[in-house]
Amino acid sequence: MHRFFVEPEQIHPEYVEILGGDVNHIRNVLRMVPGDKLSVSDGLGMDYTCQVEELDGERVRVRILEKNPMDVELSSPLVLYQGLPKGDKMELIIQKAVELGASRIVPVSLKRSVVKLDAKKAAAKGRRWQAVAESAAKQSGRSVIPQVGPVMTLKEALEDAEALDVRLIPYECARGMEAAREELAGLRKGQSVGVFIGPEGGFEKAEVEAAVEAGARPISLGRRILRTETAGLCILSVLMFRLED
Asked: 200: which residues sit within 8 A by CB, 6+ positions away?
């Protein structure tokens, strides 16, 4: 069943109004007609099974058939602080991070980041990245749309992560896998976890030192060097497996 996200104010006691770009998608791409069923999420954990009643150029009105709370989110918020990669790799990273349960993705500009975004480009990229997150949330059956934050410096990202219970920084010079296993074994369901991933070329030593000084814990992801688009997804997969209820 096709899923759509709406703002809570679009939900009424007996019906939901779907607005914006989803209207064109429902009418002209999916070619839905009155009587067809779809799923609507309020982004707050409630799912509505609905039936199309009316379609016009500006809205789709659907009648609520059933209302059920969704239990698909991790109890542990996972925040990915991703060093800006080249090309369109960020879109892949966001898509997969959303599928793996990340609650938020924060792009971070680091010393070895090849991509440098001015304010205008960063705003345009941010809109595109948020659209990717929404699409991935729909596809993977999430009950919320993870937010893609504005591009931050490392200093800003470390300050942002101060509120999290645990901060991890995969690093090739970290102690071996046994130490990593011990670190991950200490995690508890419900704890919030931030993960810092470097760009192509990795972190500079001074950046890792700054992160450790701010409370991040270095861990190893194995003896092989992982690409930036692989490293975050690797650790998010491990965290999901460990922290999923």
From this structure: 85, 86, 112, 114, 227, 228
Alpha helices in 48-115 (DSSP H): 89-99
| CATH superfamily assigned to domain 3-69 | Hypothetical PUA domain-like; domain 1 (2.40.240.20)
**Structure confidence by residue, pLDDT tens digits, 107-134:** 999 988 888 887 888 889 999 999 999 9
Q: Concatenated DSSP letters for 185-202?
A: HT--TT--EEEEE--TT-
Residue 148, pLDDT score: 95
DSSP-derived letter for residue 142 is -
β-strand partners of 54: 61
The token duo for 39 is 């799923």
Cβ-based neighbours of 35, under 8 Å, separated by 6 or more: 51, 52
**Helix, strand, coil % over all residues of the chain, rounded to 5:** 35, 25, 40
Give the pairing type, strands 59-69 and 46-55: antiparallel
Where residue 173 falls among pLDDT bands split at 50, 70, 90?
A: low
Question: Could you tell me the CATH superfamily of domain 78-243?
Answer: SPOUT methyltransferase, trefoil knot domain (3.40.1280.10)
| Under 8 Å between Cβ of 48 and 16 | yes
Q: Residue type for 116, please?
A: K
Amino acid at 3: R
> Domain-by-domain residue ranges, the chain?
3-69, 78-243
What the block records as the tokens of 187 is 């995690």
Do the beta carbons of residue 100 and residue 237 sit within 8 Å?
yes
